[in-house]
Amino acid sequence: NAGVMQNPRHLVRRRGQEARLRCSPMKGHSHVYWYRQLPEEGLKFMVYLQKENIIDESGMPKERFSAEFPKEGPSILRIQQVVRGDSAAYFCASSPTGVETQYFGPGTRLLVL
Amino acid sequence: DAKTTQPPSMDCAEGRAANLPCNHSTISGNEYVYWYRQIHSQGPQYIIHGLKNNETNEMASLIITEDRKSSTLILPHATLRDTAVYYCIVRTNNAGNMLTFGGGTRLMVKP
Fold it and tell me: pLDDT tens digits for B52-92?
């Protein structure tokens, strides 16, 4: 059973560009969480989604960040007009339901030049 | 969710048991204790969780005190590959409850 997949694993963007991070949950999991880890800091929750629904986005920055989890395909975390402060590791986790253990992917490391 | 307190760092000799403590004195009755670890630059890895009873799996054992105010994660025979940051997290199992990561314990396993 494949684990949580994230791609790309590394992403380099120039300031002002858009970044799209993809997360494919484990088979049978319909709940996805995104977390961000800034350099030398702990992981911070960003958003929780079920298929076609955003359930909790209390950790998302108010501007430039959005997330979706369509009926078909991976969950996408989108960052518009990236700035240097967006450089971080972005991890997604999935669970079968919202109450089960969360399993993490390997992360996407975003570097903004 | 209740807050947890962990020592910032610990050392352990290879082959010996690593005992990682965690205090969660404000834990409530429906909150579970979860342990994850993060090996450098990798995604957090789930280790074990429990509510009241001690738990054991192929990776580790979790000992929860009777009053549930503290717990200990035990790696019975630590190897160099167990060097990582270990996070103790308390959460309910309500729908959508996110994980709140603290600073964790940086475990260094030495030859």
Answer: 989 999 999 999 999 999 999 999 999 999 999 999 999 98
- Local confidence band at B96 (pLDDT 50, 70, 90 cut-offs): confident
* A19, burial (CB in 10 Å: exposed 0-12, middle 13-18, buried 19+): buried
pLDDT at B2: 60
Q: Given CA atoms A51, A56, A60, A62 in this order, what sign does their dihedral have? A: positive
* Contact flag B94-A98 (C-beta cutoff 8 Å): yes
Task: Please choose, from the candidates B34, B32, B31, B12, the residue with its C-alpha nearest in 3D space to the C-alpha of residue B82.
Answer: B12
Of B21, B27, B17, give the one whose Cα is nearest residue B6.
Answer: B21
- The two most distant CA atoms of chain B are separated, in Å, by 43
Residues of B in contact with A31 (CB under 8 A): 96
How many residues does the structure list for chain A?
113
**How high is the mean pLDDT in each 10-residue block of chain A (113 residues)?**
90 98 95 93 93 93 95 96 97 88 96 97
B33 min Cα distance to partner chain A (Å):
11
Q: Which of A43, A91, A101 shows the shortest C-beta gap to B46?
A: A101
Q: What type of residue is A12?
A: V
| Chosen from A48, A49, A99, A109 to mutate, greatest number of chain B CBs within 10 A | A99
pLDDT at B40 over 80: yes
